[in-house]
Amino acid sequence: MSFDPAIYKVSITAEWQKSAAGWHRWIPLINAWLEDITETMLDEAAVTVGSRVVDIAAGDGGQSVAAARRTGPSGEVLATDIAAEFATITTEVAARESLSHLSAEVMDAESLHGIDDNRFDAAISRLGLMYLPNLHGALREISRVLEPGGRFAAIVFTSPEHTPFFSLPSRIIRSHRGLPAPDPTLPGPFSVGAPGLLLSKFEAAGYRDVRELIVDAPLRFDSAAQCVQWRREASGTVQQMLEGMEESAKSEVWEEIEKALRQYETPSGFESPCQLLICSGQA
């Protein structure tokens, strides 16, 4: 069956609508895990006091909040995501944190309708670009809404072997369901993580002064069981892969996943390797 971007977008939007609340329940741990690399991303995007920032595929806005704290009230942060539930959550967080300069809108990264040319001086994206079916179009759109010289910085996963907490559960589920390995040319968690690949896509979209940085960011939980619980509650993709299975069969799969992940347990808790890549460029 050929890949249909429109059907894919409908599917992935539905997945995130379903899992948004579950993802947000875990955001304190997610933010702690990604805190250092998020600050590096903000540095690469030259976000500072007073910056006007757009966040692409923002999810529930964990990194949007970090950007808003850095810009201060003299700046502006707009979180955009294709899933309406994420925009709602970000709006609620902004109100709770008294970040009146942080707002959220439902928006497709490939078509930032409603945003004027040159409106922002910085753009960020944390673990979102790899899911876009028309990445070139999205990169061009992001460049359009940046003022000349504005910087865009994005974080993506590198490869399955460097990120076992993510790839191992999917591999086990695929084995149980008789599903083929994912096509590396299609949108997915590791689709743009090969060294130099995202950099080349930035350059092809017209960005200048493009650079990339690979960072180790181990994922830590109290136990493998806690990591599994996070994946069960927060991953729309995993939930979709398990649809149609009997509950007893699902339980067996999760038990196998937890057993496999126990190899990353240490006396001080669970620690899975994770390698991330930051790519940035100037519009």
Description of the molecule:
It is a single chain. This protein has one domain: Vaccinia Virus protein VP39 (Rossmann fold). Helix 1 runs parallel beside helix 4, helix 2 packs across helix 3 and helix 6 runs antiparallel to helix 10. Strand 4, helix 5 and strand 5 form a beta-alpha-beta unit. Helices cover 45% and strands 21% of the residues. The model has no long low-confidence stretch (mean pLDDT 95). It has a seven-stranded mixed sheet, sandwiched between helices. A three-stranded antiparallel sheet has the order 7-9-8, covered by helices on one side. The chain is of the alpha/beta class and 283 residues long. It is globular, with a radius of gyration of 18 Å.
Could you name the key traits of this structure?
single chain; 283 residues; alpha/beta; Rossmann fold; 7-stranded mixed β-sheet; 3-stranded antiparallel β-sheet; 10 helices; globular
CATH superfamily name? Answer: Vaccinia Virus protein VP39
Please give the number of β-strands: 10
The CATH class: Alpha Beta
Strand order in the largest sheet: 3-2-1-4-5-10-6
Characterize the overall form.
globular
Task: Count helical runs.
Answer: 10
Rg over alpha carbons: 18 Å
Tell me the major beta sheet.
7 strands, mixed
Poorly predicted regions are none
State the CATH architecture.
3-Layer(aba) Sandwich
* Beta-strand fraction estimate: 15-25%
What's the helix-strand series? HHEHEHEEHEHHEEHHHEEE
Helix percent reads 40-55%
Number of domains: 1
